[in-house]
Amino acid sequence: MGRAFVYVILGGGVAAGYAALEFTRRGVNHGELCIISKEPVGIPLGLRQVPPYERPALSKGFLLPEAPARLPAFHTCVGANDDRLTPKWYKDHGIELVLGTRVKAADLRRKTLLTATGETISYKILIIATGARALKLEEFGIRGSDAENVCYLRSLADANRIVDVMKTCSGGHAVVIGGGYIGMECAAALVTNRIKVTMVFPEEHCMARLFTPKIAEFYEEYYESKGVNFIKGTVLTSFENSSDGKVTAVILRDGTRVPTDMVVVGIGIRANTSLFEGQLSIDKGGIKVNSQMQTSVGSVYAVGDVAAFPVKLFGGDIRRLEHVDSARRTARHAVTSIMEPGKTGDFDYLPFFYSRVFALSWQFYGDNRGEVVHYGDFPGARFGAYWVDKDRLVGAFLEGGSREDYEAIANAIRLKVPVKDLAELERSGLSFATQA
Ligand code: FAD
Ligand code: NAD
Ligand code: ISD
């Protein structure tokens, strides 16, 4: 026994919210669309289940000590200044929300999903939007990250927990494991909550997947000026615990002991593909789709962090992007392909990443491959970098730009502006993009 829908979205994160909005814009009928999500809430304010929300808020506004962001303020699709999709919005649009419910098996031949509650839900078209999960230290052979003052950050439940743990550590000390997005944004939030931070990561500098050493040096010096201490080029090997099980120190590879009141771990993610392995093509750790977001099974689409799609701008290279703009746009594109088959062109995406910490804000467009040219005023926090490959601009980073500046660098990457002379590019700096 179970329910049947025309369209089912599996997953209730960012991509699901944007897909739902697009479905209503394209004229879905009441009762045709269902969203199934296991999204955990954690310590609830009368809220046990939660429809899609803007996950980026969790490491930014949500962690602020003053006037923190709380739901319903950041339900999707606030990031796009569109409607805010509250539970009432779904009800008014006749969209069935099956929340707090994990799908434990998928049969793509029969077009059915089996939930952990034992219900079979069938579909004509399935959109997989299962996102990703945070990697655990245990997966690297380190035990003890289930202690009550060790935090990860992926869901509202995790963010609620960080807020609670921070309250017990005011004026104290935190260790942040990982020098990527979570590490950098959480370290800034911890300091803002008057908690001193030591960041530990294996690379030579922070944000190693994107930043050049020179860009990283700027952010590391800025963080140090706010009281963050960096221990680079190493990893933790174990935790030290008090008799009540709380972590009191982290022990590093060379035996260094870093005493702490809490730990935040951000060591990367894995896309949630396991339900579909053996049923769908997998690439780059995600579900491979074509430029309509369609998987190797025609009735099944994949969007967001879980999807590996061809990036036209990079000559059709398959990429899996772990960023919110990509989640929003792949979701919309899948829905237009489903609702207007034949009329929807190939997905033509310009990769876009950003972050905001303290008073800083940067954006990056394109790909960070090839030769790098830096420009601008580093001490004044208004600087950038270009990446040049085969005599064309392929990537652009900018800190402290205006809206027009960011539009200009995005446009220059979209146009793949030819670059004749790297020295000239360095001298022109931002104006190379604004005048392109
Ligand atoms: P998710 O938002 O992860 O949603 C996946 C959903 O699927 C979840 O609700 C999950 O519970 C559900 N699910 C998974 N498996 C099942 C199952 N078997 N049954 C039922 N439900 C299931 N990106 C940026 O570009 N800028 C930022 O500033 C930024 N900040 C971020 C801050 C944080 C704290 C985090 C964690 C991420 C941030 N990101 C940011 C990344 C961005 O949030 C993701 O790229 C985006 O959420 C991906 O959307 P998604 O819908 O694909 O996956
Ligand atoms: P990440 O890939 O950005 O960084 C992972 C970091 O973990 C690496 O930089 C490395 O320093 C560290 N690391 C890896 N293995 C380790 C180990 N064994 N021990 C210690 N450190 C180790 O991943 P993240 O920071 O965990 O972020 C998770 C996801 O959230 C990503 O998809 C990211 O895009 C997303 N996110 C994005 C933003 C943003 O775009 N502004 C903000 C927050 C989160
Ligand atoms: O960085 C972000 C982003 O893209 C969001 O959607 O934060 C959120 C909201 O702007 C915060 O409410």
From TrEMBL:
Pfam families cross-referenced by the UniProt entry: MDHAR3-like_C, Pyr_redox_2
GO cellular component: cytoplasm
Signal sequence, renumbered to the chain: none
Gene3D superfamilies hit by this protein: 3.30.390.30, FAD/NAD(P)-binding domain
Keyword annotations: FAD, Flavoprotein, Membrane, NAD, Oxidoreductase, Redox-active center, Transmembrane, Transmembrane helix
Catalytic activity: 2 monodehydro-L-ascorbate radical + NADH + H(+) = 2 L-ascorbate + NAD(+)
Gene Ontology MF annotations: monodehydroascorbate reductase (NADH) activity
Coiled coil: none
FAD/NAD(P)-binding domain ranges (all copies): 7-330
Top EC group: oxidoreductase
Superkingdom, natural source: Eukaryota
Family stated for the protein in its record: Belongs to the FAD-dependent oxidoreductase family.
Stated name of the protein: monodehydroascorbate reductase (NADH)
